Amino acid sequence: MVPLEAPAPSAPLPQENAKNEEILNSLKYVRPGGGFEPNFTLFEKCEVNGAQAHPLFVFLREALPVPSDDASALMTDPKLVTWSPVCRNDVSWNFEKFLVGPDGVPVRRYSRRFPTIDIEPDIEALLAQAPGSA
Q1: 134 inside domain
Q2: Looking at the 3D structure of the chain, how many domains does it have?
């Protein structure tokens, strides 16, 4: 299993304002600080919605148009929409999560409210299906 994170400058709430080269130092020295170094792949910032959306997120959003736990998840404040065009399958808030199988096929999309720890059973089910996992 390989966790990945993609900071997004406008997805849909612009919480990542740091430059790419500042993000790791921010994690290490500020929040959470204490010398923290992520043990997962951290992409450079990229757009997840709109005309400039990274191809990975276009692919994920097309494969899984809505979060499985909240199919009605939408932006609640139109003033926060900073991209165009706006589509129904847009990432509706920061901290949405996608689970992708070992074959590269998107399996499930989770809303921002879905606790990350609760993805564990889905991950275990995928790992159990993997060749040589018996």
Answers
A1: no
A2: 1
